[in-house]
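Collaborator request, handled under Task 6.
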Amino acid sequence: MADISIMSGRWLWCGSQIFTEAQWDTLCSLATSWKIQGIHPKCADGIHPYYDDAGMQMLKSIAEKHGLKCAPYHYCYGPKFGAVQIATEAQISAHIGSIFGAVIPDIEDEYMSQYDAAISFAKQVRALYSGLWIPTMYANCITHPTPLLALNPFIDAWLPQVYFSVWTGIAQDAINYVFPQWHAIDAECKTYGQEGLKPTLPIISTTNNVASNQIVDFIEKMQRYGYIGFWHSGTYEPYASAVQTTPIPTLENTMSNTDQLQAAGWKYDAQQKQWTAPNECVVVLGFADAVSKSWDPQDYPLENEQHLDQLEVSNPALGGGSRQRFRMTTLEWTPARGVFKQWTGQELIALEQEVHQLQAQLQTLQNPPPVEFPRDAQTAIIDAIHQVAGITQELQTVGTALQSVLPQ
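Structure tokens returned to the collaborator:
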């Protein structure tokens, strides 16, 4: 898991506005006066970026000038428009993340119950980007079936949004309602071999007239989660003075990825720069770097790294390189691409198809079809057999004659 400590503190969500440089500078100045630590601008809607690279660098540099951390988000339609949409949004997510060091896909609605699409989206993002990737979700995660189990191995944290108006507007009622759902998902993740539900970083909606004292109560109760976000800037100002009196959320007892691995029994050799998993398989070189950055401790290697002249059956153009299979992941390396994660579903289907073809060939060899000859050919074969028999008889007669004349 990537280090989520940069997400600590109070954060402001900025709605869907596209900002000019002057507008962004004004908002960042205002956020600083409200004692905000971080800010979330929207950088894309579906496959449509809001900013070019220069525009995103502007957002980042101005936020940093005001002492603010910046983690942008984009709304993802994904399965609503199909595989091309998913692939394009994955590229956008990865690119935004590469500029800011963190990116938030807003998947609350479109990915409900879309498990296969969620896995496809996650794998495509992670093939391109290994930094902080934190999707939004509904806080009542069972009532709204976000594909948590599908995405949880790929993400670093969740951003659940709390709508107090749904739960009587009282902070404790909101917590009493959603906590058992988070707890149930955590248990389900562990049942399926995951380490548990990734950290939850709560967002408060300020659009439904929740009382300031209830927001204060919620922040105080959730302080140890390390983060509190406010949606969105246009409705936040009435709450700003009350929020400033609350403790700044801090992440307590948060372990780095390396600490988590070592706590789970992995051993790191700093001199050799290699990991030894609890099952004694080793991870070296670039694969070890990937594990150090972000890795599920339960994702043990099932083999040591090996070279293959052809890495993937499903992608012959990839050529040769190195591969290491883990329980849930396959890492690969080529000189052209460096280290990346294999698209395991695609490769598994290709391997299954190859096995089926080989099984069919073997069945044919073991049970050859009967050979049928035309009637003319059958007659010719019978005649040939008779001729061979006659020749054999003649040879035997000649042999007997020779024996009689040869000296004894």
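The cover message to the collaborator said: "The chain has a mean pLDDT of 86. The first strand starts at residue 9 and ends at 13. Please let us know whether this matches your experimental observations."
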